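Session log. Operator J.P. requested a structure for one protein chain; no other inputs attached. Running the standard single-chain path with token output.
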Amino acid sequence: MKLLVTGGAGFIGTHLVRRALSEGCSVAVMDNFSSQVHAGAQDLASDLIGHVQLFRGDVRDRELVSRALDKQDVIVHLAAETGTGQSMYEVTRYQDTNIGGTAAILDVLVNDKTRNLKKLVVASSRAVYGEGQYRCSQHGAVYPSRRNLDRLLAGKYDPICPLCQNECVPEATSEDCLMSPLSFYGLTKQVQEDMVVMFAQTCGISSYALRYQNVYGPGQSLTNPYTGILAIFSGLARSNSLIQIFEDGEESRDFIFVDDVVEATWRFISEERDLSDRYNVGTGKRTTVLQVANEIVRYFGSSAQISITGAFRQGDIRHNFADLSKTRAAIGFSPRCGFSEGLGRFLDWAGDQDGHQPGAYQSSLREMVDRGLLHG
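Structure written below.
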């Protein structure tokens, strides 16, 4: 199999490339080595150099995309800007990269009928759901809209039923949930999905939109302050700096270890049947942000204080965790790494790394305050 991975020098991409090589694939990588993600590194991981073909440049560069796509069997499109909060004020940048980059790939595919491509896999996100699925004691399954600003200012963080206005509790969100993104990042992922599905059908190839939950693990950026609270909190804990937690700390996410993400992605890459569709990739379990902070501080024996600030960001959701029924039925996927085990493996790695920049995180918060997107 000949495989092209856009964003293949990044966190998930590097792990996926290693897996593909171990499966005997011929692998090409396209990456622009963005400074925000790569912190100055301008090459592949050392163990990959010489084993993959590298196309150095931007996924929006149509000529480069055309050369990279030549004779490929499968594309995995990971290249994207990924900061949920940052997307609310870096609007043009997120549009250009996430939507424009996808458009460049599809433009080449639809206009060159000599391509060998059989399959296109795009990394989507749980952000397409917005708040996702909840349960109201009176109305059953409901799908709350954006949380009301007055309630948030009053410290009432849980979503309310859109029918009776009573608070409701989170449920696992399935793929048939209405897409209702609350951040521009989430909106770009929704558009990416729709673009890929539309043009894959036009080109007669199979397509998969994989809705990743919160991915973490060794190799993720420790310097990018816009994504990954595990990396942010670990840096703050190591430097004994104040860890500020939004809302009341009970907001929760579905954290999935990178090896499990790679396993699910590889199964879709290698699947011989055409199961084209949109699929959740997560653990089906939720972990609160306060629990994450406490476990990280305990691991490092840190003297860092944890502050529950009550602050909240525009575009943030309260809870989300994945219903994996559809993914399990399609490819037999079940995550293997529990959160405590995965967190330990991540922190074992992070503790040996340089480059933590607690000040960068504070700077990112000030950017949101200046734009009226962070309250409290």
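Operator note: The CA atoms of residues 151 and 157 lie 7 Å apart.
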